[in-house]
Write a structure and sequence with these properties.
Blueprint (H helix, E strand, L loop, with lengths): L13 H4 L2 H5 L2 E9 L2 E2 L2 H16 L8 H13 L6 E9 L16 E9 L10 E7 L17 H10 L6 E5 L5 E4 L3 E6 L2 E4 L10 H9 L6 E4 L4 H4 L4 E6 L3 E8 L2 E2 L4 H14 L2
Helix pairs in contact: 6-8
């Protein structure tokens, strides 16, 4: 077979595509929106990325100076982007086969991959999602809640084994049948005008949009409680919504066979919350 056109990998070199960090998940990353050339919540994304880099690859030969060096390198990679984009920054280390870790390294030994795509708000904003509950792939107890690592195989297999036609994503439940998160979002549950969400931990990411919703919650709900929600309580909820840095808050209208009906007053309040945290 003759290939007439070579494949194009925007934002990545071929060596990055076949690098073991990408093949086996040995990387850390963050994903954010760019609006009119401005990186949304950049300081929060960098702070989380900095913690992840330090946790996985540190300490560094540059001492405390590594933080500023990394920040400048990341901003330089993003400098050529503009308009409305989805930006994913992945950091990894080029490693010899069979070598997982060695001694102290330079921050300049780390590689940075930038991948971007156009953000089309018409494809997502206002669309409610349908979730299918399934057991979560359990992470070890020492896994920090800020860490986003580059392996999605367990999630892909969970979706393949659990999702049914019409589903948009999985909703992970703990071994105790309590709500954790979806594959792409933190999950909030509303009952009797009280907002609930799962505590952060190995299986619940401390999401940046999650933090923003919590900070603004007192203006939209009677109370906020960070606690576990059982599957039984979930199916009695008045509202369920997810949050991530790309879509912001978005409503869930069906979980397994349970359909959630929303009152007009709640939808108005939710839209006000969504607009506030997306600015």
């Amino acid at each position: 077979m003759i290939l007439k056109d070579k494949p194009s990998f925007k934002g990545s070199k071929m060596s990055e595509i076949i690098n073991r960090a990408f093949m086996y998940g040995e990387s850390v990353f963050t994903t954010m929106r760019m609006v009119n050339g401005h990186l949304c919540d950049w300081n929060s994304h960098f702070e989380r990325l900095k913690k992840s880099v330090d946790f996985v690859y540190g300490p560094f030969a540059e001492g405390d100076e590594w933080v500023l060096l990394l920040k400048n390198r990341l901003l330089e990679r993003c400098a050529g982007e503009n308009g409305d984009r989805v930006i994913r920054l992945t950091i990894y280390r080029e490693q010899a086969r069979g070598l997982v870790r060695s001694g102290i390294i330079s921050i300049n030994d780390l590689k940075i991959s930038l991948s971007t795509s156009h953000y089309d708000s018409t494809r997502s904003e206002g669309k409610m999602l349908k979730l299918r509950t399934c057991a979560t792939p359990i992470k070890p107890h020492w896994w920090p809640s800020f860490l986003k690592a580059g392996s999605y195989l367990e999630t892909i297999l969970a979706q393949k084994m659990s999702m049914q036609p019409g589903d948009d994503d999985v909703l992970f439940l703990s071994p105790r049948d309590t709500v954790l998160e979806s594959s792409v979002a933190n999950i909030f549950v509303v009952r009797h005008k009280i907002l609930y969400t799962a505590p952060t931990g190995p299986n619940v990411l401390d999401g940046i949009m999650r933090q923003k919703v919590i900070r603004e919650s007192e203006d939209f709900f009677d109370d906020f409680v960070e606690s576990e929600t059982t599957a039984e309580q979930l199916f009695k909820a008045d509202a369920v919504f997810g949050t991530n840095s790309v879509r912001g808050p978005f409503l869930i209208d069906k979980i397994d066979g349970y359909e959630i009906k929303y009152e007009h007053n709640f939808l108005t309040s939710f839209e006000a919350l969504r607009k506030r945290v997306m600015t």
